[in-house]
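Minutes, project check-in

Agenda point 3 was the complex the collaborators sent over. CS summarized: two entities, 904 residues total, and the question is how they sit relative to each other. Sequences were read into the notes so everyone works from the same version.
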Amino acid sequence: MNHKIYLDENEIPTKYYNLRADMPVKPAPMLRPDTKQPVTLADLEPIFARELARQELDDETRYFDIPAPVRDFYKIYRPSPLIRADKLEQALGYAGKIYYKYEGNNTSGSHKLNSAAAQVYYAKAEGVKSLTTETGAGQWGTALSEACSYFGMPLTVYMVKASFKQKPFRKIIMRTFGADIFASPSDTTAIGRKMLADDPKTTGSLGMAISEAIEKAVTSDNARYVLGSVLNQVLLHQSIIGLETEKAFQKIGEYPDAVIGCAGGGSNLGGLIAPFMRDKIKGKKAIDIIAVEPKSCPSFTRGRFAYDFCDTGNLTPLARMYTLGSGFVPSADHAGGLRYHGMSPVLSRLYADGQLSAEAYKQTEVFEAATLFAKHEQILPAPESAHAIKGAIEYAKRCQAAGETKTILFGLTGTGYFDLAAYESYQNGTMKDYVPSDAELAKSLKNLPQTP
Amino acid sequence: MNHKIYLDENEIPTKYYNLRADMPVKPAPMLRPDTKQPVTLADLEPIFARELARQELDDETRYFDIPAPVRDFYKIYRPSPLIRADKLEQALGYAGKIYYKYEGNNTSGSHKLNSAAAQVYYAKAEGVKSLTTETGAGQWGTALSEACSYFGMPLTVYMVKASFKQKPFRKIIMRTFGADIFASPSDTTAIGRKMLADDPKTTGSLGMAISEAIEKAVTSDNARYVLGSVLNQVLLHQSIIGLETEKAFQKIGEYPDAVIGCAGGGSNLGGLIAPFMRDKIKGKKAIDIIAVEPKSCPSFTRGRFAYDFCDTGNLTPLARMYTLGSGFVPSADHAGGLRYHGMSPVLSRLYADGQLSAEAYKQTEVFEAATLFAKHEQILPAPESAHAIKGAIEYAKRCQAAGETKTILFGLTGTGYFDLAAYESYQNGTMKDYVPSDAELAKSLKNLPQTP
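CS then shared the predicted structure for the full assembly.
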């Protein structure tokens, strides 16, 4: 038995798969914040590269060609391995099989690079002169810096000031790839200067960083703002994860009974499950597809399915999604990513339609699962990815209790090299389990925008 | 063209190759420090597992079987890819080919895991109950922790106090794998307590940590001390790097004209070059084999070929090697590893016999090469590995000047995720280029031990 199933470079998919084309009920359209009418291509083109705007709105086209330069970029770190977790199975005493698709084998350390490459390529091909983005924990900023370095695209990253100070190494990697990094709020934008004037000691937030990045893009010559999750286009690019996984399973003549992934904005989960969800929707396979989220930011398990803003500053279009309210920010005690108040509209639709289920776990039990995994599988997982590990372990335990030996697949989205301070707090027993109260959630859900 | 050449798991070598068997002049034997007579198997067995002691002394056996459990461990992260540096070639305008063998795709982040797995396995198989070691920069301690976690072997690591404080993340990874880590000198050994009494503010040294690890091993029940470089057995285990590389080149019908690796104690270089040096020694191939070292610790390029102690505390056997004197410690301005005062006796013999050449570079030019490489090849190299990158770039430039298009192979031993403070000092312009003066070297070479 092979421990890892690698595809050949020639087997890297040549097309992205658009799950929306096979959804009987499509995700609700995004609405303009002013008119509350569905956004059009004309609305999106000043924000996104043309091809990306087209991908964002297209619910019908099943496949999009992956451009050759993007495929060349993917060859640097793809195909990623599908790995049999045989040592974890032994440790659990599980008689079924557990597999994971590992996306951490690249310098940026996560799956975010898959969409970064596509977004940078299209912008470059259309003559965009520079990009801006925000980053919190830093996975997206690192991935985008790496892709921009490769395609020769100038990049400005606004990094939440608290993370800028707490994760200095993220910023050094981004600088190695040539990106300009500013701690947000900064004095490089009007809105940043205003925020600093209002509160000189602010440690920033993702919402503030988004505002700065957008201002920088719209005030620079032919610049665009890009982001790394939630959007339909991002899930489309991430379908490469699921397509490779499907092909690897075909090679070994197997098919998973359960597909499990962590869920923040939904980019990794949406990509991993794409072909498996297609088979489920079409009635070809009766499988379990499970989103795992932190109890500290429980958009699926405790959120509301409603139109909401995508950002804290309420500048963006409205998306219909599971949301905790755009003002919701999980406690600083929560480590790593998966901190977003909303959820991909595609995944939200599937969850509402009962095609996808969701589970939430506390932070310390997630790090316990991460440590067990590291000891047996010899990979140090990112805290985000460890949610999927926890979900897979719990699924295996339920199978054991029922006397079943199902084949479990989960997504291991990245490495924890930049999250070791969180591992330390887990080891020292100082890690906290934050769970928002009902009152807290009711408050942040109170001011959802009105829609027709 | 494939960017990466992967072997199948079934093609992982089943035997280590012992280059000593093909050396016409063998490396000089180690000498006991008391009698100055060659060490025997009986001398080594209290220190090393029996099989490892046998491997250490055997200059005749050409191949050693890799035990099945060690091969299973290798399947977690091997075969490692041989990668065509096509983007670096383009950036340099080099018309020849550059390949690198990448050993950083594992959680420990370097090639050290190859020997760690073998050493832990043999100790476990022979009933050893625990292991001790020292670590400086932390690559070896991390690799050994990972292997000990897998094979279920308790491990105590003495980490130089300065590194313990400067690289806290290294220690958290080791703890995740279940190792006990102490900042050295510590109060857990008699010699540590004495060192602390002599100088309560000492920041420690590799020499002190070795002394503590050895004391801990000899005063514990059936424990052994292990180390990660310099020794013949370590080069033997690392031959897996070279054997895989040879097989990958056979697959694509090529053979390198130059093989380049960084050199500290010699473990990676000795492993990478093994089959290529064999072909050179046997007159089958006329190739260049080049060791690259830092100008701050120039054992090959400015050291003396003589018997010397392997440790600063002068407790170990004497080895005949290129040495800067066992009291030599490079400036703290020097980042990363490659800080050892001596050099593998095998490589020292080959260098003395003109089979191997050596070059030394300054720290800032090495980080300049590292940054160029990261931007084009999308891998963040360890500072150690970046010496080989610099050597390869300079070799390519010499070829260009001569109108040649030679095929260059270098070893990329690991990632720089834990060396980002050094990258920062390079980016900030505060990185220093330390080069020892002639007087300094003369002083540290003055007290070499007398041998018959």
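Noted in discussion: Chain A has a mean pLDDT of 94.
Follow-up: revisit at the next meeting once the mutant set is ready.
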